[in-house]
Amino acid sequence: MRVVVSIGGSVLAPDLDPERVAAYAEAIERLVTDGCEVGVVVGGGGVAREYIETAREIGANEVELDRLGIGTTRLNARLLIAALGDRANLAPATDYEDAGAALRRNEVAVMGGVTPGQTTDAVAAAFAESVDADLLVYATSADGVYDADPNADADATQFASLSPAELVDIVLPMSRNAGASAPVDLLAAKLIDRAGIRSVVLDGTDPTAVVDAVLRGDHTGTDVVPVGGDEPSYWTEER
């Protein structure tokens, strides 16, 4: 089974805790040991936001801000690579070809941001599409997709399952607001819809949640299921 896991920076390294990074590396190693080919896209999190806000105050333009964010995602990716040791590529892949080549070498392919104007949400979806991944998992600080921002609306309802087109419809109005509250961004949702990628959005605070979702399809988040899509056969195999 080929899976791409998108790990938010605020999930992997909220406060640069080595135990948290090591726990994520252990979770990824478990997937590899169980026979999965794993690609990982790492976000920038709070550290990236601090750099971006500081740079904005001193006059940096939007492209410069994006490059700062990309640099931070790659620093976080290097943390995970260090924890994975020789299981991973030596340095964060800087494009999809490099990441795909790492998978073909039977390495965990770790990358951060790629280009200004594109979030790591979208990078993960594009990477998953480029390598024909069986599953895309977003490990976020949210516990799934809701019909409204659960932090602002006590009546927000979580979706257990959505089609990719429904995900686009839900994310679209959220993406128009400053400080967008969408669990994945609009471009990522559109890429998932275009490619028909089976996806999961879940709370990644506990790395074992990713293991359970990938190996067995067990989670408390939201499934994004293409119309007519079947469960990955991996979930029904005896291992």
TrEMBL record:
<feature type="binding site">
    <location>
        <begin position="9"/>
        <end position="10"/>
    </location>
    <ligand>
        <name>ATP</name>
    </ligand>
</feature>
<comment type="similarity">
    <text>Belongs to the UMP kinase family.</text>
</comment>
<feature type="binding site">
    <location>
        <position position="140"/>
    </location>
    <ligand>
        <name>ATP</name>
    </ligand>
</feature>
<feature type="domain" description="Aspartate/glutamate/uridylate kinase">
    <location>
        <begin position="1"/>
        <end position="202"/>
    </location>
</feature>
<keyword id="KW-0418">Kinase</keyword>
<comment type="subunit">
    <text>Homohexamer.</text>
</comment>
<dbReference type="InterPro" id="IPR011818">
    <property type="entry name" value="Uridylate_kinase_arch/spir"/>
</dbReference>
<keyword id="KW-0808">Transferase</keyword>
<feature type="binding site">
    <location>
        <position position="49"/>
    </location>
    <ligand>
        <name>ATP</name>
    </ligand>
</feature>
<dbReference type="GO" id="GO:0006225">
    <property type="term" value="P:UDP biosynthetic process"/>
</dbReference>
<keyword id="KW-0067">ATP-binding</keyword>
<feature type="binding site">
    <location>
        <begin position="114"/>
        <end position="120"/>
    </location>
    <ligand>
        <name>UMP</name>
    </ligand>
</feature>
<keyword id="KW-0963">Cytoplasm</keyword>
<feature type="binding site">
    <location>
        <position position="44"/>
    </location>
    <ligand>
        <name>UMP</name>
    </ligand>
</feature>
<comment type="function">
    <text>Catalyzes the reversible phosphorylation of UMP to UDP.</text>
</comment>
<dbReference type="Pfam" id="PF00696">
    <property type="entry name" value="AA_kinase"/>
</dbReference>
<dbReference type="InterPro" id="IPR036393">
    <property type="entry name" value="AceGlu_kinase-like_sf"/>
</dbReference>
<dbReference type="InterPro" id="IPR001048">
    <property type="entry name" value="Asp/Glu/Uridylate_kinase"/>
</dbReference>
<feature type="binding site">
    <location>
        <position position="146"/>
    </location>
    <ligand>
        <name>ATP</name>
    </ligand>
</feature>
<feature type="binding site">
    <location>
        <position position="66"/>
    </location>
    <ligand>
        <name>UMP</name>
    </ligand>
</feature>
<keyword id="KW-0665">Pyrimidine biosynthesis</keyword>
<comment type="pathway">
    <text>Pyrimidine metabolism; CTP biosynthesis via de novo pathway; UDP from UMP (UMPK route): step 1/1.</text>
</comment>
<feature type="binding site">
    <location>
        <position position="149"/>
    </location>
    <ligand>
        <name>ATP</name>
    </ligand>
</feature>
<dbReference type="GO" id="GO:0005524">
    <property type="term" value="F:ATP binding"/>
</dbReference>
<feature type="binding site">
    <location>
        <position position="45"/>
    </location>
    <ligand>
        <name>ATP</name>
    </ligand>
</feature>
<keyword id="KW-0547">Nucleotide-binding</keyword>
<dbReference type="InterPro" id="IPR011817">
    <property type="entry name" value="Uridylate_kinase"/>
</dbReference>
<dbReference type="GO" id="GO:0033862">
    <property type="term" value="F:UMP kinase activity"/>
</dbReference>
<dbReference type="GO" id="GO:0044210">
    <property type="term" value="P:'de novo' CTP biosynthetic process"/>
</dbReference>
<protein>
    <recommendedName>
        <fullName>Uridylate kinase</fullName>
        <ecNumber>2.7.4.22</ecNumber>
    </recommendedName>
</protein>
<dbReference type="GO" id="GO:0005737">
    <property type="term" value="C:cytoplasm"/>
</dbReference>
